[in-house]
Design goal:
single chain, mainly alpha
Length: about 70
């Protein structure tokens, strides 16, 4: 995912939140809420990847910062 995908994913998350609120049936509301959370999670993951870590530490133990 690139940062260019984030506006689309954010808009989709918002649309799903509105659909969840407007849903006539609890099952439909739950489905839209789940989609909203999925899109929001993808946006947050993309933002986390886009922000460079501070020197000397890594957010991911499987991706250590090289020495030097």
């Amino acid at each position: 995912m690139t940062t260019e995908d984030m506006p689309y994913l954010s808009a989709r998350s918002f649309a799903e939140a509105v659909r969840s609120i407007q849903a006539d049936h609890p099952a439909a509301a739950a489905a839209h809420q789940a989609m909203c959370l999925a899109y929001t999670g993808r946006v947050l993951a993309g933002l986390r990847e886009a922000i460079p870590p501070r020197a000397g530490w890594s957010r991911r133990p499987d991706r250590p910062i090289p020495a030097g």
